[in-house]
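Let's practice the habit of predicting before peeking. Look at the sequence and jot down your guess about where helices and strands might fall. Then scroll down.
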Amino acid sequence: MTESQKMLEILHENKRRVREENLNKKKESKIDTILSYIVLFGGATIFSLGIMTLISVIENLPL
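Done guessing? Here is the structure:
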């Protein structure tokens, strides 16, 4: 093999490796995004239920 062929082979191997790493990062970031949306939705739901409960308790207080 000539030196230029070796260099091209090394470059090709590096591109393939970087491409695989980027795909793995995309998958991980999608999972993290979905989990953060689920946590945010759960927190917002609990907060709104707490506010509604507080309002109903205040409305039912004897004056």
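How did you do? Residues 5 and 11 are 10 Å apart (CA to CA).
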